[in-house]
UniProtKB/TrEMBL annotation:
This is Aldehyde dehydrogenase family protein. Coiled coil: none annotated. The active site is at E288. PROSITE patterns: ALDEHYDE_DEHYDR_CYS, ALDEHYDE_DEHYDR_GLU. Belongs to the aldehyde dehydrogenase family. Signal peptide: none annotated. It comes from Roseiconus nitratireducens. InterPro entries: Ald_DH/histidinol_DH, Ald_DH_C, Ald_DH_CS_CYS, Ald_DH_CS_GLU, Ald_DH_N, Aldehyde_DH_dom. One of its GO terms (molecular function) is oxidoreductase activity, acting on the aldehyde or oxo group of donors, NAD or NADP as acceptor.
Amino acid sequence: MLLQALPPLANVPIEIPLLLIDARRFAPFLSSRTESSTVKPSLIRHWIDAKPHGTESGRRFQSVNPEDGTVVAEALRGGADDVDKAVDAAHRAAEPMAQTTPSERETILLQAAALLQRDADEFCDLLIREIGSPIGKAKMEIEIATRLLKANAGITRRLTGRTYPSDIQGRWSLGFRRPIGVVAGITPFNVPLIKGVKQASTSLATGNTFVWLPSEHTPAIADRTARLFHEAGVPPGAMNVVFGDGSEIGDHLVSDARVAAVTFTGSERVGRHVQSICGAEGKRVTLELGGKNPLVVLSDADLPTAIQAAIRGGFIYQGQICMASSRIIVARSVYQAFLDGFVAAASGLSLGPLREPTTMIGPLIDSQTCDRIRERLRQAVERGAKICCGGQWSGNRLHPTVIIDVDEDMLLLREEIFGPVVTVEGANDVDHAINLAASAPGILSAAVHTASLATAMEFAQRLPTAMLHINDSTLQQEPEVPFGGDGASGFGREGMETALDDFTRWQWVTMRGV
């Protein structure tokens, strides 16, 4: 399905593929808000040891539709006791889970993939209502999560060991991979299905158990995901979910001595705090943080392709993606042509109903986010920045905003905005472009558009980024690759290969005289 709402540049139509799935499969969502949005939400309980669990405190919180403020779900607000129960269940299940066969774990994950496709309509509805996903982004998330489940099913047959030469005559020297036990996962609001499925399936594929603390914005999605894994055949205690405020119970989960590894996606500030706890207690940790991600357009770039990539990277899910390219750096020789085409394309993006296939810009997640972005825009304009398009608000939706004449004193140039705001700067030459891009405090993903392979590889060698995409968008996701960032953008990597090292431990065994 192609987004048709974009104006042409030099008579070349600009088309943004929103990914991979025929919208006709989601026809029930295109004509109305669905009846489910009018039904009083039921209470979501913690998912522990294969069944819903109450909480002693009785406290609750609400998940609110960012579009219209209606309550999507009401969930129990967990405390330390609830975390203890979830870790208890995961710890008890750790040994039986470690003894499951590759075929058993493979079957569970493949069945989960099949169930996710079967129930795609329901998950799509939840993503639209609970986090304000336009339908194109919701479909993308379901498709990527399905691919992750299928790919991670393959991990189950890659837990291979080794033989080693020995200097001692008659001795066998062997290495085995063993599961590490309980893995804790903490996920953000923006891609709750992808991250929940990714963290859970890599843990389960390697024979471990999982305790999940999802964002407070996504209890309905997390609860439905846990039930999907349960229906797929995950053993009792191997998949547990506790709902609540991460600032209240996150430390208790991360510091539990029975938790062997933590995988976290979120802000740098919280990620570094999680890392400090894990470091002090000798736990394994993987952090996927954000970044001020640059997209560079050089003088020999194909401009229509570059504009497509910049629109997709800057504005899908209204910029609330950790790989979003919120900073564009353009060679001065093509600066004006790029800017004219980019502004025209951004101005034509649809802010229509979230269930319309052409809608690309939806609501920001909450009012605090809106207030923060308003302040960044106000400060930038006061300091001399110029808004070329956007800057207007329709409820919690910010129209796609393109800004020029920025400088390093402006917070929106240094900070990850997490909204539909993109700055455009000019670069004198390749060195200048690399230096501008590298000045960001952290880069998770970068892109460069050029016809020169040598120049592209120079960027790969010199730009301090863990992920670089040539003639494409900064938004890329594949289950097999080492995904993640360094420094301010992360620690460690997610992926099939890296999961073997993150979630297993080596055991050395020697044998003589047998």
